[in-house]
Amino acid sequence: MFAAEKGIELDIINVDMAKREQRSEEFVRNKNPSGKIPVLELDDGTCIAETVAIQRYLESVVPEPNLFGNDPLETAQIEMFHRFIEIEMLNQIGVSWVNGPIVAKMGLVEPIEAAKKRSDSFVRSFYKRLDRELGERSHIAGNRFTVADITAWISIDFASTLVGLPPDESLTNLQEWRARIAQRPTSGAGARSFV
Fold this sequence. Notes:
By secondary structure, the chain is mainly alpha-helical. The protein has helices at 2-6, 25-30, 51-61, 72-98, 101-106, 113-133, 147-163, 172-182, 187-191; strands at residues 39-41, 47-49.
C-alpha cells in the first residue's frame, strides 16, 4: 500500500510461510538473516528488510507524496503515533495471531489460550482509544493521510480477517476512518495481500 501511494510498482514474490520458506538457509543467507518478511530486493541484489526501513527507503527515492512528515514537528508526531500503532496494537495482534487457530493448525507453536485472551483485550482497548482520538482528528497522526494510517489500516484489516478481532461497530469514529481509508484507490494494494 505504501508503494502504491507513491506510484511505485513492485514485483511481488510470495513466500510460503507455512512451508517456512523465509527460514530456508538460502533465504537467511541471501535475503534476511532474521528469516522474516517483508524484504525489498533492489535490482543490484541489495536486500532491505523490515517494513519501516523499506518504507523509509521508498520515501527517499520518491519523496512525494510525503508520508513521514514535512517538517521536524510533523515528522516526530507521525513517528510517535506510528510507534503507538506498532507497539501497542500490532504487537498484541501478533500475540493473538500466534496463539490463535490458524497458527495452531500449522503446528508451529503450542497456542496459549490465556495469552490470546489477554492480547485480544489489549487490542480491543486500543481500538477504543483510536475511536476517541479519531473524534479529535481525521487521521491517525493528524489531519492528513500518512504512514501511520497505512500501518493501522493493514493491522486492523489483518486482525479482522485472520485473527477474529474486528473493531466493534459501536466505535463510530474508527469505523468512519476505516470507510474513508477503504475509499483510497490504494487500499486494496495492501489490505488483502496476506489472504
